[in-house]
Amino acid sequence: MKNSNFKYSDDNKRYHTYNYYLRHKYGIKVFKVPLNANFGCPNRDGTKGIGGCTYCSGKMSGDYAGDPLLDIERQYSEVRQVLLKKWEKAKCIPYFQAGTNTYAPIDKQKELFERSLTFKDAVGLNISTRADCIDEKIADMLYDLSRKTNLEVELGLQTIYDTTAEKINRCHTYDDFLKGFNMLYERGIDICVHIINGLPDETREMMINTAKTVGTLRPHGIKIHLLYIIKGTKMYEQFLNGEIKPLERDEYVQIVCNQLERIPENVVIERVTGDGVKEDLVAPLWSLKKFCVMNEIDKEMARRNSHQGILVGVD
Q1: Where are the beta strands (DSSP E) in 150-258?
Q2: What is the Rg, in whole angstroms, of the alpha carbon atoms belonging to the chain?
Q3: How many percent of the chain have pLDDT more than 90?
Q4: Which run of H or E residues covers position 241?
Q5: What is the pTM of this model?
Q6: What distance in Å separates the CA atoms of residue 299 and residue 296, rounded to the nearest whole number?
Q7: CB atoms within 10 A of CB 69
Q8: To the nearest 5 percent, what fractions of the chain are helix, strand and coil?
């Protein structure tokens, strides 16, 4: 039944879900196939920093992506076959997920991206990267791609606060992010911005303000992530030393609902939580029950009789 309180919903959701967006755009189930092109990251090799962001695993946020030892065609085929067991007749979006996917010679980027457009049942392309790895030439190349397919570029921001960015070894500022974002935005390229709740020493107000500020940029989408602790990361050491305390589930639910209320309703909410690989996850363990977290968000929005965007321009 149509949710009468919110126009971007066919069910009980009170926010503009990625599933709703894809279903209404393509008229069929569409899922993303995560790939690892092994492009690396400037925050690991010394170009920007060493060791990467303190929360990032050795797979560079590509824990669910394909095997980087395989070519992308093989990765796509293998991951797609697994997902087709759940969604038999679905279409697919090749998703360059792991690492920084505009951190390579531009000819290599272009060749791999264009090759992915030929994959079986591919209906679009998603590219995840850092905003400080976008320049005018790369932006032009991405614009050309956007004229051939439904392209979305995903930019990891995590927080608008430079003090927090320093603590997590992000190695770029909010101004750096805005420069890359604007190069893409000015070319009409769809952008999804990633933010993380629960970063060290951030208050609830800071997290809400990050979401609100990103919303004013009017990106195509936003991914809201939960900070979780993974074995082998710098943040794991900080957690063991008692320097970091992950959010409790109820805290997280309240923060996400507060964020959703301040994000314009046409912005697609592509994620509202995160789930680390079970074998490597240390905390919070409640994050393993992802659908339970999502249900709690739905229930809290209903309890408030609220929906995405209801407080835009109010506070």
Answers
A1: 151-158, 190-197, 221-226, 229-230
A2: 19
A3: 83
A4: none
A5: 0.95
A6: 5
A7: 9
A8: 35, 15, 45
